[in-house]
Predict the 3D structure of the following.
Amino acid sequence: MSRRTRLAVVPARRIMIGRALALCAVAVVLAIVLVLLGLPLGMVCGLVLKSTFGTVFGLENLALYMTPLLMTGAAVWLALRAGLWNIGAEGQFLAGATAAAAVGLFAPLPAPVALPVAMLASLVAGGAWSAVPAAGRAWLGVSEIITTLLLNFIATYLVYYLVTGPWADHVTDAQVSSQRMMLALPSVYSVVHWGGPVALALVVALGALLKRSRFGYELSLCGSNPDSARYAGIRVAPRLFTALVASGALAGLGGMMEVLGTVHRLQGGLAHGYGYLGIVVALLARQSAYALIPAAFLMAVILNTGIVLQTLQVSASSVLAITGLLVFAVAVSDELAAYVRLETKS
Amino acid sequence: MTAFLPLVLHALAYGSILALAAQGEVIAERAGVINLGVEGLMALGAVMAVLAADASLSPWLGCLAALITGSAGALVLGLATVNGSANQTLCGVALTFLGLGLSAVLGHAVAGLPVSAIFGSWSVPGLSRLPGIGPVFIQSPFVYLAFIILPITCHCLLFRTRLGLSLRAVGENPAAADAVGIPVRRYRLWAVVTGGALAGLAGADMTLSVMPVWSEGMIAGRGWIAVALVIFCGYRPVFAAASALLFGLVMSLSFFGQAQGWPIAPAVLNMTPYLGTIMFMILPALVLPGMRRLMAAPAALGIPYFREER
């Protein structure tokens, strides 16, 4: 006789095997869809590989995609450690970008002064953008999922309003865009800017903070079992608030890197879904902050794949569909990995 | 009065979208499953309604396609979260991504084109000829469904039948429900599928009646607002319809304001539904903490049921 039982703690190896299978399943579904759309599979695969890894341009693109993904991923991950779902990284990203753009456009400061100011402004703006949902969740128990998400739409409208109204570009005829800013993050290599290394350092620091500090321990405790945290004398609400505001600040900083490092203008489609993809990055990373790095890399590859598909006349939103499929497959495989066959002696 | 008539008509039309989706979500959440994929299901329903209506030249078949799409999407979610006990938040968000992305891909060819077959208005005999308020009684079938038929049906189903009692028991205390012989997973699965069907229908309401054209991003967070409404209305179908009307009013304010040339930037007016939703989620909790017990979520909402852990 054998029957299945569910493990309370799942070994990482089982999770990884499950996820590898999930990834394969997504790839198979994708291949079937491509065939149904009438695209030659081999050609598409070759094109994706070549344009992602085979060219300098592709590699630069990967680095540029990874930077915001690391930041929004870290943001969602931090909130998740406290048991909170920050679905609003997109809005916080835009808020941070807007604040940084305000500094870049209107503050007549030399770059060494202006960059830290812009950084600070984006941190504050991102944090402020998540403060209301954070307070609502921490003290009133209002679902942060919905409030953070709805603020994304407000941020989108805000940016749209600014770049078509008061901050619109009147010099060149760029639509839905501000002027090109002089203020920029210094570059590491050609178009790749210092945002990437900073993001990497931040992720590592975040991992150390959560693992080694008292704050990190208390935060994880609040996330995994708020009741026992309360019993241990930890005041849960302020910690939840801090976690979500810090999460917003991280996403905001990501926005600053994007606007001052990559795009150099405040634009309508600036956030590019990075906030939502951050959820996927955080999900793939699970408990480890360091795992955010390979997760962000995988998402960057998927984003690049989307660009290739777009050149083949598939809608740009196919990336969103692939992402959804991936999250779904991973969520299911993570659960199924918890089931083991129990051998019972008859 | 006549000046505000367009506002009311708008509110009814836009409110019906929210009402359909929100009441579907009430059913799912009463059974203990939170479906965060409403936004994606609405998008899929909307685009499938357009495709089917264009192909068959019948809005009814468009409607049917949306219903089937919504149910199928929700079935996938239900199988994953109810039978597979996967994380409901994650799967819901994934379904939203998938729905939004897939609908954009599917609707690529018809984006921006007028839908060839849409629902006309049905008038209530007698009432529609009333002076002044007559036009209120000339509405698309979705409005009658969302504000009259569905609230009554859902309310009676949930609170007046044994089926509804079992459904609520599954959402409040699945172990107890299981003990008296109610098939917990089957109830939950069907509740999610019903909710998904209504979300798909809400999408059809958009493209076959309210704004008869498919464009990417046209759902614009309405699915999320519907999910928020469910909390706001305390998981009651009649209140859900009423608060949907309220939010329909908030949404139409932005159109109305722009049409009337109010001295408010259009962007700000566009933000009002979202700001309003956030306000309505936070204010009741802030001002009326005593209400929280009355409006509380089903006790087992979002928690998968394992018989072994009983």
